[in-house]
Amino acid sequence: GDVDLLMRDLQERTADLQRLHAEYQNYRKRVERDREAVRDAAVATALVELLPVLDDIGRAREHDELDGAFKVVGEALEAAATRLGLEGFGAPGEPFDPTVHEAIAQESSPDVETTTCITVFQQGYRYKDRIVRPARVVVAEPETSAE
Length: 147
Description:
This protein is of the alpha+beta class. The chain has 2 domains: 1-84; 86-147, Head domain of nucleotide exchange factor GrpE (Nucleotide Exchange Factor Grpe, Chain A, domain 2). It contains 2 helices and 6 strands; from the N terminus they run ααββββββ. The chain has a 3-stranded antiparallel beta sheet with strand order 1-4-5. Strands 2-6-3 form a 3-stranded mixed beta sheet, with no helix packed on it. A hairpin with a 2-residue loop joins strand 4 and strand 5. The radius of gyration is 27 Å and the shape is elongated.
């Protein structure tokens, strides 16, 4: 009688509490994911603004003009960008991948078996799982033999 009614009532309330608890946990996870997405977007935006400066530092290094205080500041900026999660990519010899490379010129070559990056005009950058700038490259295509 009364005990069965009370037990059923208790089970319903317990189930309600468990449901509310699960909903609250899901809400907290969603808010945390949203917060992280906003942070990632803000960091990516800031890093994109720094890319021309990083390009200048790289060009100065290539021409042996990176020295003194400029070298210290340049290396500190590169290290900070790396700590934030910026990854550079694009090197001669890499297989061409249209999802991360932008071909600005192409030529044929007997030396390659697949489309390959031979010159990197501008380094590409990735932040987390997103390409913030494709690598701009010159590609070599395998020569087609007329057999």
